[in-house]
Amino acid sequence: MADIQHKRQNTAGKVPVATPNIGPTGMVSLETALTAAIGAKIRLQTVAPTSRTLEGTLFTVSPALNLLTLSTSPTPATEASTYHILPISALQSFNLVSLPSPTVPLPPLPALDHAALQSRLESTIARLKAEEARKGKGVSREAQEIFDRISRTLPTRWEGKDIVVSDAVVIEAPYRPEDCKAGTGAAKESLTRVKKVLEIERKKLSEKTGAARPAIPAAVPLTGPRKGG
């Protein structure tokens, strides 16, 4: 088992290499050392603050993209592997554990489920669009917090700077109970309920804001010697 440790130095991205026949300077770049180790089993350590140690087969290295791929194959090797894609610049050091064996091929890449990937992509896009739609444009922080609080109880969306609740009631700025208006065909009960919810949430918000303010100390009367006494 070879135990060759490569550590990044401050000398123009060069690392010392403890192997013979590498040239008169005894120095090669980290990218060159990694490229020469493709197919070998290595142990690497990443830099702080997310320092961790990984051991596996160096699957590929791309100096142009500043990335490497490490395959941590389970036992037996016929099982699916886990691949870690890491920035080369995130490496603190790496040790060559064993040389690549010409008789043992690298583990094959697992087949990609394109349908699952597309579904995951569409789900992520839909979630991000929904999160963006929940953010009011050009409204105050208080208005956004009122929106967020009401939406926990009732379906709520923005229409410009107005808050639309249950597609039946519109709350206009400054978002008080008296600013609630029933939409066309909306039941009176819907308007009453939204006003009540808004009143409760504004009260909670007011109490929260008041509690967050530091208490003002009471004035202390100055005392001193009385005149003529």
Describe the structure.
Strand 4 and strand 5 (53-62) form a beta hairpin. The longest helix is centred in the last third of the chain and has 25 residues, at 188-212. The chain is elongated. It has helices spanning 30-36, 114-133, 141-151, 188-212, and strands spanning 4-7, 14-16, 27-29, 41-46, 53-62, 67-72, 82-87, 91-98, 156-159, 162-165, 169-171, 180-182. The protein has a six-stranded antiparallel β-sheet. The chain has a four-stranded antiparallel β-sheet with strand order 9-10-11-12, with helices on one face. A two-stranded antiparallel sheet has the order 2-3. With 229 residues, the chain is an alpha+beta fold.
Strand content: 25-35%
What would you report as the Rg, rounded to the nearest angstrom?
A: 33 Å
**What order do the SSEs take from the amino end to the carboxyl end, as H and E?**
EEEHEEEEEHHEEEEH
Number of helical runs? 4
| Main pleated-sheet profile | 6 strands, antiparallel
Instruction: Report the strand count.
Output: 12
Q: Give the % helix.
A: 25-40%
Unreliable stretches (pLDDT < 50, length at least 5) are 1-25, 213-219
Read across the widest sheet, the strand sequence of neighbours is: 1-8-4-5-6-7
Morphology call: elongated
Oligomer status: single chain
SS content category: alpha+beta
How far apart, in Å, are the first and last alpha carbons? Answer: 99 Å
Average residue-wise pLDDT: 79
